[in-house]
Amino acid sequence: MIEALIKKFIKEGKLAEQKAGIVQVEALLKESIIDLKEAKKILRIADRATYIMAYIAMLKAGRALLLLKGYRPTDGAQHKTVVEMTGAILGEKYTDLVSHFETMRRKRNELTYDAGTLLSGSESKQALDDATLLVGNIFKEAKSRNPQLELDL
């Protein structure tokens, strides 16, 4: 299944092969952890900012996962490509988590480009919890490739 998705995305110009070292993967994961920590600091005072920071943390971790597998998203629908590839790489065990990642992608678009989008404090809290879980699982995947990888989650 994942091979077919990769071929489809490469043919559509949404994905390209990318050789990357663990240093590049680690750098993106570190950035996503910084985003999570900042989102946690503002959780009780800024629902929208928390939500968007949590989403960005997921996006960076997803990009790290793609790099780990030797790919990067290219022009056109990069966020959507990262979400779909993250789901394909992590597998069915993470279907619910990746489904929320997709929901967050759409809501982030609404928050960014539309007016009047409603967002509750509980949505922001759930976004931060799910982002922490996704980043942690992607970190585990990266650590399985490089046991010396250490990040402060």
Would you kindly provide a brief summary of this structure?
This protein is mostly helical. The chain is 72% helix and 4% strand.
The separation of the N and C termini measures 31 Å
Indicate the proportion of strand residues.
Answer: under 5%
- Order of SSEs, N→C? HEHHEHHH
Number of helices: 6
> Which spans have pLDDT < 50 for at least 5 consecutive residues?
none
Helix percentage? over 70%
Secondary structure category:
mainly alpha
What average pLDDT do the residues reach? 95
Largest sheet: spatial strand order = 1-2
The count of β-strands is 2
Q: Let me know the largest β-sheet.
A: 2 strands, antiparallel
Q: Give the overall shape.
A: globular
Radius of gyration: 15 Å
Account of the protein in words:
By secondary structure, the chain is mostly helical. The chain contains 6 helices and 2 strands. Strands 1-2 form a two-stranded antiparallel sheet. The termini are far apart. The model has no long low-confidence stretch (mean pLDDT 95).
